[in-house]
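Wait, mind explaining this?

_____
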Amino acid sequence: MTEFIRQSIHAYEDPLALVWLTCAARVGFTVLRSRDAYASSDGQGRLLIATEDQFDPDDNLGQMILHELCHALVEGEAGEALTDWGLDNTRMGNPWREHACLRLQAWLADSVGLRDFFAPTTDFRVSFWASLPADPFAAPATAGGRRERSCVAARVGAWRAGQSRWAPHLTAALKASAQIAACLPRGDVSQKPDEPDKALPSLWTTVVPPPPRHPAGHAPVADYHRGQACGDCAWSFLNRGRVRCRHAPGVLLPDPAPACSRYEPAAELDCQTCGACCREAYDSVEVSIRDPVNRTHPELVIVHETHRKLRRLGHRCAALTGGDVPTEPFACSIYPQRPRTCREFTRGSAHCLDARRRVGLSL
């Protein structure tokens, strides 16, 4: 009798893991499994993730990758070039930066009903994640409100997540994760083969239905803004008598339309608590030769052969004052003589929204 030996010709891959490995690769990262790190980066485009036998029962590779990608989004390209995003080994030396990462992680996961599924499995799960409100970018007024440090950094990360390098791949990975979750039967226990007496609820039971999309399609409807409508939002505007949104200006909105996760009360859109257009949102302010500031404050004007612009101090206009702490208002020291470029900048415009996104005040 001839004995046949079966040979394997394919290797099984976990679908969720494959989704996030692909996402990481498409935004520029290689994932390496290592027993020398739980979750880290080497500053050279490689994410180092622990091996499966080092995972706890509630760990999954998708969550680990998503968490590290959120660090990349918060820290930006400069942070990508640093080992472990420039954080110390325990992350406790920079808790606000870890908090920013987790706020962003919650916001992204919420969009597909997977906040609990993609919850972190570090100590921050108890010390910070569990206390996050429904709006992960919300902070108490006593802590600085919208200008609280980790909220600002997280929103900047959300702005980066919407850029061309990231948006299509993150969106695809989050959508695929939700589709996998929707296909699974809802078993109520999961047992480890070597610990049959210890039954844990399946992580998949934490999945909830994704929130409905806003009629404009740009964001989920937000229950935490219940009772608010598009007409009350800072980013709504009228065009031919119909309400539209700066986030999706080409879409006619029904009346009334519910508030989305990007909603901001119009009454809170205040230049003195913002200053975004005078800060790092834009690189320079052009000055016309006819602008009074040339005569009244020549020390603030830099003259080039073909153009003039306002001097800057670091990432902000030299004429901008205040804003050194979250509770300190911004002000313009040359407001009556500000250049025409500044005079024509309109609060609540598309440029205003773009500036606020870039500095982490809006989504």
In short: The chain is about 30% helix and 15% strand.
